[in-house]
Amino acid sequence: MADPIKVLIVDDHQVVRRGLRTFLEVQDDIEVVGEAADGAEGVARTEELKPDVVLMDVKMPGMDGIEALRKLRELASPARVLIVTSFTEQRTVIPALRAGAAGYVYKDVDPDALAGAIRSVHAGHILLQPEVAGVLLSQEESNSGQGRGGSLTEREREVLGLIADGRSNREIARALVLSEKTVKTHVSNILMKLDLADRTQAALFAVRHGLTR
Fold first, then answer.
1. For residues 160 and 19, what is the distance between their CA atoms, to the nearest angstrom?
2. Which helix (DSSP H) or strand (DSSP E) does residue 81 occupy?
3. Quick one: three-class SS letters along 14-63?
4. What does pTM read for this prediction?
5. How far apart are CA 85 and CA 1, in angstroms?
6. pLDDT at 103
């Protein structure tokens, strides 16, 4: 049996943390390894506990979730961050995605959907609700990088299309009959050539410029 997905919960409300933990403790393949009450503690606990996935609130006292995301990026943390937010905070999700979040769920999510979201981001997928993806794409309109896609090789365009489909590196490797190491190299080249920060931006670029499969 594969090792369980290690999850860290970062939220300033104890009731929310307890509720999320209760949701997850019934999942055989997910293990809650710790909790944190603000962004600074979340960053420290991520460094200490090495979780696979961090459930991160956005609005917290002191260091908020977006600043914590930026700090984790600076530290090159491999943890995938899933934002847990309320519906009314939807506008704050966009800066979080730009800061490196792998996606988001709402705080009233049912247990099965939450577990599924954790498994999805752990597998390398990106979770974007249509309404947020639409806002992100419209905001990119003024700085769309038109023409940059022409600098990609045919293979890189194939990889980019699969990134936009939400495929992990392992899935891309299987689809294109490549090694995961080769796929990682292609992904790095794509981000460099398109001047993008992460896979989320790459996926949005692909959708915006019709490079999806």
1. 37
2. strand 80-85
3. HHHHHHHHHHHCCCCCEEEEEEECCHHHHHHHHHHHCCCEEEECCCCCCC
4. 0.69
5. 32
6. 86
